[in-house]
Amino acid sequence: MAGRRERCSWCGVKLVVPAEAQTIQCGACHRVTRVNQPSINFNPLIQATHSINQAVSRLRTLMVDAAASPSSSTGTGWCSGAPAAACGYYNPPPPPPPCQPSWPSVPKPLMPPSAYGRKRALLCGVSYHGRSYNLKGTVNDVNCMKYFLVDRLGFPADSIRMLTEYEADPYRIPTKQNIRMALQWLVQGCRSGDSLVFHFSGHGSTQPDYNMDEIDGYDETLCPVDFETQGMILDDEINATIVRPLPHGAKLHAIIDACHSGTVLDLPFLCRMNREGCYVWEDHGRWSSVYKGTSGGLAVSISACDDHQTSSDTTAFSGDSSTGALTYSFIQAVENDRGLTYGYLLNAMRQIIREARSGIRLKGPIAALVNKVFGTEFLQEPQLTSSEKFDIYSKQFVL
User: Model confidence over 127-166: pLDDT tens digits?
Assistant: First the structure.
C-alpha cells in the first residue's frame, strides 16, 4: 500500500501517511502526530477512541489559540469586559520562554482590587524628585491626610489608596496612567451613602481651552510625575471620571493642593467669597454645552487657590517639615471644629493662611519672580466649588 490518509491530531488537516510510518509531521501546524498501523482486523472501538482523542486534541488547540488571541481576550475591572486591546492602559504580556508550554496568558489587572466599604479615598502626592521644580511637602501632605482620615474621621485603612514616587508597587507611582486608573477605582461601584475623597498635592497648571467651556479661556490641569512626556490631566477629564458618575445619595470631596486649582474639577458653581465672608455663587456651567454636574450625588472641591493664583509649599506651619498650605490649613480647621459648616471651614482656612507670612516656597513656575516682587507673603485664597448651590453657613461639612 503506497499510503493512507490520517488526520492531524492537533489541527485536523488530512495527511497522506506512508505505509510503514508510525509518526508524521503536519505541514500546516508543524506538530507531530502518532499514527496507527493498519490492521486487517478492523476494531471499531479502537477507531472510535482514536477519533475522540483527535477531536479533544483539536478542541484543546482551538481553546489555547482563542485565549491567546488579542481579539478575544478581555480586560478585567476598569474596562468592564471590553476587549483589553481596546483599552488605552493595556500592554500585552511578553511571550513565554521557548522551553515552556504556551498556556493562555493572563494580563495583570488593569485596576486595583475593588474598593472597600462605604468610605474610600485616593491620595496623590507628587514631588517630582530630581527635577528643578521638585516639591518637598507633597508626601508629607498625603501622609498627614491619611492619618487624619483614618484616626480622626474613621476611614478604613484598607480603603485608602496612596500614590507617591516612593511606593514599591509600580502601579502606585503617580504617573498619568496610574492616576487615571486610580480615579476610576475611586468611583467604581459607588452607590448611595458612599463618601469619597480625592486629595492631590503637586503642581497644577493651565492650558488653552479648545472646546470653549471655560469662562477665562483656559482649562485647569494637574501635573502627574511624567507630565513632560505624557501630558497633564485636564479638568474636563477629571469631571467626566469622578464627578458625572456620582449617583444620588453619594458625595465626593476633592482637596486639591496645587496652583491654578480653583475650578480643576470643572464643577458648575464657584463660591465667590470676599474677605468679610460674604459670598455669591457663580454659574460656570452655563458656559459649557456639556453637562458638568453629577448623576444625582454631591461633589465639592476645596482647592488651594483661584485659577489665576499659585499655591505654596512651606515650612511656616510646622517648623522644619514642608507642607502644602492648603492641606495643613484644611486639617487644622477641621480638627479645631468638627461641627463646622462649609462657610466657616473656608473662612478658617483663609485666616490660617493669612496668618502665616514666612517660610514660603511657591509651587508655581513664577515662584522666583513672585517672591522677588512681593516677598514671602502668601498669594493664595482657598476656593470652594460645587455641583450644586447651597447655603454655605448652614450646611455642615461632613466627610
Answer: 999 999 999 999 999 999 999 999 999 999 999 999 999 9
| Active-site option among 26, 190, 223, 259 | 259
Look at strands 360-362 and 312-314 and give their pairing: antiparallel
Is residue 255 within a helix (H) or strand (E), and if so which, with residue range? strand 251-257
For the chain, the domain total comes to 2
Q: What is the pLDDT of residue 261?
A: 93
| 127 and 24 both lie in a single domain | no
User: Is 144 a catalytic site residue?
Assistant: no
**Catalytic one of 8, 124, 203, 284:** 203
Q: Residues 271, 382: one domain?
A: yes
Domain co-membership, 213 together with 341: yes
- Could you tell me the pTM of the whole model? 0.68
Catalytic-residue membership of 29: no
Within-domain flag for 80? no
> Considering only CA atoms, which of 351, 353, 346 is closest in space to residue 312?
353
Domain span at residue 189 reads 119-386
Backbone angles phi, psi at 108, to 5 degrees: -65, 140
Domain-embedded: residue 344: yes
* Claim to verify: residue 199 and residue 322 sit in the same structural domain: yes
Q: From CA 398, how far away is CA 253, in angstroms rounded?
A: 9
List CB contacts of 89: < 8 A, sequence separation 6 or more: 78, 110, 177, 180, 181
